[in-house]
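Review the following:
>
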Amino acid sequence: MDPLLIDFHLFRKLAEEGRAAAGQGDHSTAKSLLGRALSLWQGRPLEDLSGAWAEHCRNQMEIFERVPAYYSLFESQLELREHLEVMSGTGMIRQEHELDEIFAFQHMQALNGLGKYPHALEFHSQFCERLFDVMGAEPGPELRDLYQEVLRRQAGTGVVAPEPPKAEPSRPQQLPRATRRFAGRSSILAELDALLEPTEGEQGQVVVLHGMPGVGKTRLAVHWAHLRRDLFPDGQVFLDLRGHGPGTPIVPSDALGILLTSVGFPPGGPPLTAEERRVELGRILRDRRVLVVLDNAENSNQVRPLLGALGDCFTIVTSRTRPWGLKILDNVHAIGVPPLSPAESIELLRNEIGPGRAAEDPDALQELATRSDGHPLGLRIIAQHVAHRPQTTVADLVEEFKDQEGLGILGSSEDSDDENATLPVAFSWSYRALSPATARAFRLLGMHPTTEFSTSATAALLDEDERVVDAHLRTLAKVNLLQHSTMKRYRLHDLLHGYAVDLVRHEELPENRKRALKALLDWYWLSSTSAAEVLSPDSPVPPLDDLSAVTPLRFDDESEALEWFTKESSNLIAAIAHAIRHGHPGHSWRLSAQLHELLDREGRYSELVSCHLTALKAARLTSEEAQSGTLNNLGNAYIRLRDYPEAIYHLKAGLTIAERLGMREMQAICVHNLASAHLAQNEVGKAIAMYEQALRLLRELGFRGGEASTLDQMANAYRKVERDDLALELHRGALEIRVEIKHLRGQATTHTELGKILHEHGEHEQARTHLEAALELHRLSKDRVRNSEALVTIADVYYNLGLLDRSIASAELAVAQAVEIDSPQDQVKALHVQGHALALLGNVEAAGDRWRRAVGLLDGRESPELATLLSHIDALERTRDAVPDPRNPAGSLNPTRCAE
């Protein structure tokens, strides 16, 4: 293969070219080539090899390759007068080579160039002492000569200008190049504009833009600075504080020195202490309109010493770290820079790839924009893939991105000639600054199936005390690697989650990953089981063996259980597929079973089917018992979707397995659900026979919850054959059981059915009592489907009792609830009765509006209700001052005149 595909050979080539450029006096090129070469040196060479030969190779590569490359790099930087960079670089490399005289000489040269004469002399003394202690040797002549030169300079007798020129204020123009096409951020730009004029008694404003790595803080600051540069006639200063990135952060005293030089202090001037620099900088900048951008700050402590000297300046600080200290102690304006909105993301992509390519497939472009969750650097990387692959459709690129876990192609450095323009490098500087324990917490979050999670779930994942975990999460939020969501919940940006996925694969042992994921899935299953026991008492719970030592949540009542289920529903749904994908099929089908109750209550039937189809794949990998239960759940979900052939197919398959294995409880449940599928298709006789069969089994087993449900369904069947007397008796029997086992949702369902029957028989006050009880229980159980049905019925009851305002209000609530659960039938019924109530109150226009909306929802389908509604509308149009008799389906006119 090509030798240059091997990092070591490429390193050698770049280093040789760099030394050649330095020999020709081109130190800028030399610095670039040598820097690229050394960036390839990641970790220990031949990391996976042990033994004497490998160790010998490593020593040779270090002594004869890497160290000389650093000598050459620092030499070129010294020639370029980049003393601060050399000081940082030699400070780092000397940790590995503390007795290397060349590095010591270069480090001392850098200190000398920065005017840090006392530091240089102190360093020389310490180095000589250490060299003698270890080697018994004195430094060579070069280091001795440099020591003498520093002494002369400190005494004022060295080769320096005898009288440095007086500091004359300059008008620096240091802003980086303006962005050609800037996307979005209008609200933050407006917020910065609003801060231009300080309030009375204030000096120049200080604004901190903080946010996650790569979110565009610097680009935003520079863009605004160029827009408003005319307002700062005395200059614009830009300083990278290097809080995160290669090298070490600039200490405040050095930053003051650089700022002094930028605004006119002579480079050869007398050395100053940090306090003298601050005073001198403040003197030069006094009463001047200067914009200062302090980019990439590490934390508040790095910035605070500079602010006193920048009193009259407008100062923008950018930082990955939330500026808590500056906000509290220094009263600065802190602005969080969020990811781009969907519209801004598309604008950025369109700017990068051009309007022609963007117009090829707008839907695919929209999907592509969501892949980075509004992260500007991620979007620009995506844009480069689109621009550089003109023969590939945008839709195909979307599919390519979808198939990848972790960062995938967005985390690859293979397409980039600059690794600093990749997401892993952008994120790594924040990750490397974390403590080992917090770094482990961050990467293990890559095991979580989604990007939002609770502190309790994370404690299970990390196998740590919740207080310790909370400290880790707050630290990650402080450096903008996490965002606070709601109380004790956090959100990880999609791309940071992908980065964590990549990290955990490479930095955690497989057994650690497996143990952490199992503990997390155990916690979700045990907590969901605890919630399901409260929501549906007396329901079967599929057991799970070999559980991790996790502490699940416990719930006191239905409200707590439902609140948790609702918050965690997206995590539980994602965990169903996540579990089977990572080798835990038992958790997959069990979680789907526990989630059934919540999704059924909320009317999320399509999601319910999707979950159970995934669970069925998992069940087929575990046991036939699991298959039977999952097939039953799937059939039940198809009933809710009114897909009765699919429902019957899956229920029969589940019943067959249950009968073969002697699973009597599952047999009863499958027979019950099969009966419901037949009842929905008006096969009443078959349904009643099957309900009776299920009832016998359930009573033998003592399954009281199942018995109550079957009694309710038998009652509904008898109503279809006009045996309301039997239906009332069966519903009342079901209600007794449900009160006994404290099943709130079941009680609400039975109260609703009793209210409907009594209402139809003219017993409106009794119906009202049952329906009001049902609505209160539905409020607690969050059963939106049954709640909608109860609201429609009670609106009609109130109408018949003459309580028209209550009827209108209940119908309005019913319409809103029916819209949420996508039930046009309930909407039509609610609008129908609401129209009657409005008509009786004399509001004919509003009544007509409600009936027309109801007709529109029926979409031209022939039905008795459509004919009735059309007759009402026709009556209104024929006689505008007469009210249709709401009790007469023919739409005859009530002689009562409407008020004008």
Summary: The first helix runs from residue 7 to 23. Residues 158-167, 413-420, 886-900 have pLDDT under 50 and may be disordered. Residues 532 and 774 are 21 Å apart (CA to CA). The chain has 40 helices and ten strands.
